[in-house]
Amino acid sequence: MNHRSDKERCVIFLKEHDNKYSDALEHIQTEVPLQRKLIARFAQVLTFEYVNRPQLCDTLIHLEARHAGIIITSPRASMAIAEAIKDIPEPSYCDVIRQLRGTALFSVGAATSSNLHQLGISCNGEGSGSADALADHLFHDGILPLSHTTKPLLFLCGDKRRDSIPSAFQQRNLPLIELKVYESCPIEDFRFPDGVGVPAWIAFFSPSGLKAVQNVPLPWPLIRKAAIGNTTASALQKYADTTRQMHWKAQAIAVAPNSDALARAIVEYEHNHPIQSSSRLEL
């Protein structure tokens, strides 16, 4: 076994390589200096398959007639919209864009709806940060469109969505239609990046990511955990409680579901709770 350098510690983000996260981690360390630099590495543990595209295309073409608005809580949902639009021929394409720009869209964060921003489509609720907070936001006076009592909102979701949004509508006897637009699957035989050894941190982006790695033979008590938001943090806490292994609890939780907030949460915790040991062992 080899020893890692005392000068650097590794953060593994459980997602495909994304410069926004490595850049954010590096930038925030210029504001909050650390004894030992954190460097970003990536490990994609989930793959996503988009489903029900013909149904989504038909829904978008008739959006104004059928729905009072759209709710999305995942970047995959906004990507599903962007990809479905590509399948819609002229002149319907321009009309779908017009309808989307004129329809009430609600999202948990700017990163979640970034694929729509590129099409000139804006979303409300982007400061909420989670499905639970968005559910509360939706029912503030004047937020939902007037037609929400007669036409259902459309909730675009994945196969592992939480109950926060559907329950909020059910409790108020308001119409909501769900359409599953993507499915998530663990990548079989995935590997952590070569040469990482024992990472200082692992950053989780979903409860599914936790399930994908929880049985990987790592010295988990030595590894700090970060969560992109409260939903993922709750999954880590539940797993810690169920297994009675409190080291699974997230030490850092992003205040918003984006790269800057996640990197800042990690760096600030690291700054306030520095590791005393001089090195970690390579696997």
Q: What can you tell me about this protein's structure?
A:
The chain has 283 residues and is α/β, with parallel strands linked by helices. Helix content is 37%, strand content 18%. It has helices at 19-31, 53-61, 63-66, 75-86, 92-102, 114-117, 131-138, 164-171, 207-213, 230-243, 259-272; strands at residues 8-13, 37-42, 46-50, 69-72, 104-107, 153-158, 176-186, 201-204, 224-227, 252-253. Helix 2 (53-61) packs across helix 4. It is an enzyme of class 4 (lyase). Its EC number is 4.2.1.75. It comes from Albugo laibachii Nc14. It catalyses: hydroxymethylbilane = uroporphyrinogen III + H2O.
Structure keywords:
283 residues, alpha/beta, Rossmann fold, 2 domains, 5-stranded mixed β-sheet, 11 helices, 10 strands, elongated, disordered C terminus
Question: In percent, how much strand structure appears in the residues?
Answer: 15-25%
Distance between the termini: 7 Å
Name the helix and strand elements from N-terminus to C-terminus, one letter apiece. EHEEHHEHHEHHEHEEHEHEH
Domain count: the total is: 2
Give the overall shape: elongated
Low-confidence stretches are 1-5, 278-283
Radius of gyration: 21 Å
Our count of helices gives 11
**Which structural class do you get from the secondary structure elements?**
alpha/beta
Task: Give the biggest sheet.
Answer: 5 strands, parallel
CATH architecture descriptor text of the largest domain: 3-Layer(aba) Sandwich
User: In which range does the helix fraction lie?
Assistant: 25-40%
Mind telling me the CATH class of the largest domain? Answer: Alpha Beta
CATH topology of the largest domain: Rossmann fold
Mean of all residue-level pLDDT scores: 91
What spatial order of strands do you see in the largest sheet? 2-1-8-9-10
Extended strand count: 10
